[in-house]
Amino acid sequence: HRDLHSFPTRRSSDLESISGFLGQMGALALFVYVLICLTRSLLLLPSTPFIVAGAISFPQSLFLVMLISLLGIVVGGFLVYSFPTFGSYDELLEEKYPVKIASLKRKMHSRYAFWIVAGWSFFPLVPTDAVCYVAGLAKMPFRKVAVAMLLGQIPLVIAYVFLGAEIGDRKSVV
User: How far is CA 49 from CA 6, 152, 160, in A?
Assistant: First the structure.
């Protein structure tokens, strides 16, 4: 049996691992995928490999993969926003990104906070959960955070889903 802790998160084999894990779930695969997407932030896992693997695993349901992925991103953001000390997430972020966190804290009190969250969420090389954490510390209303996060994440999720669909198509041809 494989568990979530066996998932690597940064290589192309990640996608095969996640997709293979889902394939082993049979009829429960979609349910397991939803659970993974909703809880991955508690395990400090990025959403990208799960989005792409979801498209590979469920090529007939790409729109559903997009919706589940976006829901998982919002739920993950909410968890980090609301419970920053869970799993010492606050300590990890403060240790790993001290300059970015300090800068974001200052910016979250400006009138551009919404656009900062949207821009941060759109940039694929930084963790969206970090901006949710800081927005929570700054007491930015979560509704604003969620809308800004979705504005930034929707284009990325669409791109990742289509990337996953393309990878899946190539694998099925081979």
Answer: 14, 18, 9
Dist CA 55 CA 133 (whole Å):
28
CB atoms within 10 A of CB 143: 8
Phi-psi sector, 172: left (phi>0), alpha (psi -120 to 50), beta = alpha
Give 145-148 contacts, CB < 8 A, sequence gap 24+. Answer: 145/77, 145/81, 145/117, 146/74, 146/77, 146/78, 147/114, 148/114, 148/115, 148/117, 148/118, 148/121
Task: Answer yes or no: are the C-beta atoms of 7 and 14 closer than 8 Å.
Answer: yes
SS3 call for 138: coil
pLDDT of residue 46: 87
pLDDT on residue 91: 84
pLDDT tens, residue by residue, 87-144: 777 888 788 888 888 888 888 889 999 999 999 999 988 888 888 988 998 889 999 9
Q: Which amino acid is at 31?
A: F
CB 49 within 8 A of CB 14: yes
Tokens of 147: 């809308």
Give residue 44's pLDDT band: very low, low, confident or very high (50, 70, 90): confident
